[in-house]
Structures are given as structure tokens and as C-alpha cells.
Amino acid sequence: MNHIDLMNYWFESANSDYETMNVLFHNHKNTWCLFIGHLVIEKLLKGLYAKNNPENPMAPKIHNLILLSQKSKLDVPTEIREKIQIINTFNISARYDDYKKSFDKKCTNNYTADQVKNIEEVQEWLKKQ
After folding, report:
1. CA dist 102 to 67, 83, 89, 92, 98, Å?
2. pLDDT of residue 94 exceeding 60
């Protein structure tokens, strides 16, 4: 696959995960909703990595959104970077049992709604890149 094919692959996968995130959100599966929201942003970043690195479009096999945004050669404004830093925590918090219990308590409907909004704002910014 060339870099454009890889970019499209990641963007399509992110769109599918975005739909899943919304289903989880509307069914109050808040922890997994935010975990999938992390995947949405991760996949968009990997698509941008492919776009911005045509000589080596295979995105690194990492989940750290901060590092991915740097490797994707993006000039991320402070407001978006702060949201990405919060979204980045959803990967570990939802995945591992020792973090999951405290994360479950944190993921009230209001907190999750706020974070879904943040995910959507980051998603829109990334799509414009």
C-alpha cells in the first residue's frame, strides 16, 4: 500500500470506531466508549502519519497519542494538545483492571459526555489536517 492508501485505511477505520463509540455512549458503556474514543484519535493520527511520511508510511506500533502527533509532523495548537493529553489516558485506564475500577467511577455520564465532545473536537481538527 502507498501512503495515500494507508491514510484512507486508517481514516475509514477511525470512522467505524467513531460509530461504535457513539453506540457505547448512548448505551452508557462509558469506560469502553472513551477507550474506543482513544482509538478514533489514534487511528486518525496514524492516517496523518502515513500522509506526512510518504517515504515510510507505516505508522509506529504505539498507542501514545502525544508521541504519534509528534511523529506525524503536526503543529498541534495548545488547546488540542491538552485534549489529546487527556484522551491519551483512556487507553490505559480502560484496558487494565487495576486502573479500570477507578476509571469506572470517574466516567460518570457527565464526564463521559464532556470527553466525547473533546474527542469530537480533536477529531474535527485532525480531519482538517
Report:
1. 25, 20, 13, 12, 8
2. no
**Interatomic CA distance for residues 80 and 123, integer angstroms:** 10
Between CA 119 and CA 129 the distance in angstroms is 16
pLDDT at position 92, please? 73
Q: How far is CA 99 from the centre of its chain?
A: 19
C-alpha 84: how far from chain center: 8
Beta carbons of 122 and 83 less than 8 angstroms apart? yes
Residues near 39 by beta carbon (within 8 Å), at least 6 away in sequence: 14, 17
C-alpha cell at 95: 484496558
Going by pLDDT thresholds of 50, 70 and 90, the confidence category of residue 95 is: low
Q: Give me the pLDDT at residue 54, please.
A: 95
* CATH code for residues 3-128: 1.20.120.330
